[in-house]
Amino acid sequence: MRIADIITLFRSFLVFPIAYLIIIKFNPFLLILLILFMFVLDGVDGFAAVKYSKEKITFSDYLRASFGNKVLKEKIKNLKHEIAKKNKYGARLDVAGDRTIEYVFWILFTYLNIIPLFVIFIIVIRNSFVDALMAAKGTSSKMKSRFARMFYSSNSSRALSAVLKILTFSYLSLVYISNFPLIYGELLTALFVIFVVLRGIAEVYESFI
């Protein structure tokens, strides 16, 4: 098993003790750090996937690509595409890890009566159809349409998605633990749901071209 896959599995299972710590109202500062650490690992496993490829990629190269270096971005994108063709389960495992983390948080906050049940319905339906269509397509690392690249595979879209996840799940945790105003959590949840639906539309559109 690749190091990247081990990291993916670790961050996937890390969400369960984090959920328990939220339920018992653990120290909010340390809890936010744990949530941040879990999502940072998503970037670390991406780097680990290309580090041991035929092209030697340093962490500095990976960061420069993430922040807009077009030459390095294209190089790493091509490497990920080649890796995905040779090891297709790795890319699907990464998606499964993302879904596990999201579902645990959404189910938890529904159970704690912080968000309404229909949010889970939207997320599950969106993910089910998108994942099925993209799995049939193969990989999302080589999206052809400008629309899909802009809303799904661009660095800005991925970064915004990660930031919204961290902010939403962290703030909803603080709503439960420290009685932060719920209205801001509802706004963050609404923004997150709208954004992931837009990204889902981009993925569906890509899957049919």
Count of alpha and pi helical runs: 9
Distance between the termini: 33 Å
Number of domains: 1
In one word, what is the shape?
globular
Summarize the structure.
This protein is 83% helix and 0% strand. It has 209 residues and is mainly α. The two termini are 33 Å apart.
Notes on the structure:
This protein has helices at residues 3-23, 28-51, 59-66, 70-86, 88-111, 117-137, 146-153, 155-178, 182-207. It has 209 residues and is mainly alpha-helical. It is built from nine helices and no strands.
Secondary-structure map with pairings?
Elements: H1 3-23, H2 28-51, H3 59-66, H4 70-86, H5 88-111, H6 117-137, H7 146-153, H8 155-178, H9 182-207
Keywords:
209 residues, 9 helices, 0% strand, globular, mainly alpha
